[in-house]
Amino acid sequence: DGGYHQKAYVMLVQKAYLYTGSDERSLEFNYRMGRIGHALKNYPEALDYYRKTIRMGKDSPQYFACNAALQMGFIYESLSEFDPAIKAYEECLSIDPETYRASLHQKAKSGKMRISGKSYKR
Q: Does pLDDT of 11 surpass 90?
């Protein structure tokens, strides 16, 4: 989207009908909508699209579901919602994409470590 989040959002919403179904295009559509919602700080919408991405893509070789779980962890952590953040980081670690696996998993492990250093009730 090149940093043009609002334009990308409008374009994808207008063309959403092209990406319905259960194929890789639909998976990437949900992931991209989550990323754009996240960038626009529309966290409820971003979380919804990330959940859809995980549901559709957790068994896919693509990295979309794994990164969606990681990004959910970042959102929840930024909102000081530590239990959901931990769950999201653990979800990330449970997904095994063909690409970016080591990097995504390391970031999830770091997120869990950051949270464990904060005082919160589990």
A: no
